[in-house]
Amino acid sequence: MPEPILQVENLRTYFRTDAGVARAVDGVSFQVLPGETLGIVGESGSGKSVTSLSVMRLIDAPAGRIQPGSRILFRGERGVEDLAQAGEARLRQLRGHEIAMIFQEPMTSLNPVFRVGEQIGEALRLHQRLSKRAARARSVEMLRLVGIPSPEQRVDEYPHQLSGGMRQRVMIAMALSCDPRLLIADEPTTALDVTIQAQILELLSRLQRELGMAIVLITHDLGVVAETCERVLVMYAGQVVEEGPVDDVFHRPQHPYTEGLLRSMPKLGQETQRLAVIPGVMPSALRWPVGCRFAERCPYHWQKTREEEPPLFELGPGRKNKCWLVQYPERRDEALRQGGGYGTAGVARGPEARP
Amino acid sequence: MRNTPAARPPEPRTQSELPPPKGDTDLRGRPLDELETPPDTLLEVRGLKKYFPIRRGFFRRHVGDVKAVDGVSFFLRRGETLGLVGESGCGKSTTGRTLLRLVEPTAGTASFEGRDVFQMRKDELRRLRRQVQIVFQDPFSSLNPRLTVGEALREVLQIHRLAAGDAAHRRVRELLAVVGLRPESVSRYPHEFSGGQRQRIGIARALAVEPTLLVLDEPVSALDVSVQAQVINLLQDLQRQLGLTYVFIAHDLSVVEHISERVAVMYLGRIVELADARRLYRAPLMPYTQALLSAVPVPDPRRRRERIVLQGDVPSPAQPPPGCPFHPRCQHPLKDQDCARIRPPLADKGGGHFVACIKVPLGAGQ
Predict the structure, then answer these.
(1) Looking at CB atoms within 10 Å, which of A53, B48, B60, B117 has the fewest?
(2) pTM to 2 decimals?
(3) How many Cβ pairs closer than 8 A exist between chain A and B?
(4) What is this model's ipTM?
């Protein structure tokens, strides 16, 4: 097996708020292999975005802090180094150069008063010490690579002159201009219409094939994961609850949360009388439940699950599940026999959770 | 960049067979505009247009129009759900809003139980709004943050003189129970609720006046998947229990398929295809619908489909292309200069499958 390009170990990122400490990311471990696409999927409040910001070390101090003991091992040009320990100067060298990131809303990450070409060129001049003229030429080349028509003209335009899809292409051009080994894409298509999303996803996978970088794709959209990723992590309440190859996780989901997510989505071209429902809402990061954090919404829960936190069991190579059902599989059958589970008829209406 | 087999009509027709290009001619099928509506029609919209004027300069000279809705016709049967889908800027939300006159239409008629909504006076409009209600994507922005949920609901009952005093209290509790909120919610403020619960409050408020028609404008788009399913199920239960009619506006094609009996696809201010949900999703005829459906990511890694990737962006509704609005991006093998000249009517291609495309032959719908 090739050496991972990124290895995150026991990442914990906490935020101090007026209401107490929010444990947004609470013990996350995973690795990314060179050239692969890893999906991190979860709903709002699952900690997926904070995980990606932590890897980039973009957590706002002093309110937010990566806790001691967290390790973010990145294998770059200088060998393996722990980003959790890296200084600001070193991080600035790495960001945009060896590790790049794209966000959901390109308008907020593009500077409205600079021309597109100047913004792409900035990273090139900074990291690769290119001259102004060379940086401009490379910017045009990058815009062409990401499929922007007439790049020689677009390079002199301002962000507001571009459509949403074009802006996201510019962001991708910027992110890839220095040939990063790792691209972190945080909901890169969420703000886009579905036909534009298809264009961007196709662009990302083509670029990955051509440039051979690894991609971590953070999204709430299971469809996007299914169509673009090889492996997936499912996050819930600040933790990884399931991990595995996309095909296996989608066809044989092991964690009840993953199962519920997949069954609560209407699927194109498939008739479903009634959607399965995961009752309640994600708990607050200020007060994670004890025991399994999903137990209060889980159709299979029993006393042990509400009292003891399950470990992330290893089911096979790269296949993990953080659920007591791994040790007590009979509990699932029992619940199903008694009409529990996500049986669509069984759940008449999603009971609400307390505000 | 390939067309699915379904896109290919069986027999290419030659130029000479085409009628002369002139405006809205009846091309291969009766246009929806000219059809008689079924007897159980609740709402019938014809030729709806909404232009937003573009004004420039010191004298605010009228230099053009954003054609947000440009000639939309459809009917709505009692008790059904009509889905309205399309990408941002296609005019689906504006269409929904004109039905309640939250946006004043530029042209057209909307006959609700036989009376034209667009001609109604103020007092008539007030009565209309007891029958037609709207639910928005984010009810939080339409809820007064200083009123408790109970107060907000009682206010609605008061304005429409539906209940007061003890009766109002009882009705509020009943409404909360209907949408699955606890009785204690009465004394809570909007910020104390999660997104899904706020949407339940928005629905409760719409139901307070006992409407017959609900316009649901992206009601679940802001919600997480697991919460979205709760609200969708609630809407389906309510429809069954209360006999409601829905116009369900959304950009999520899977959600629309799940909840709708019939679906209308909009592009640049026009309906380009309208049919039974099942028919439209299994055998879309309009090249735009085919591309749109093929672009939806499906949560099944084994279902790698042939994707039609559209080139470029949607043109500006201030300068929609002449003829068929989709023709500059269309990949139909028979596309020709007629597509740029003839505005295709939304015509019945057989079996009530309406398509606005002159290249889709009559009978393709069966």
Answers:
(1) B60
(2) 0.88
(3) 148
(4) 0.87
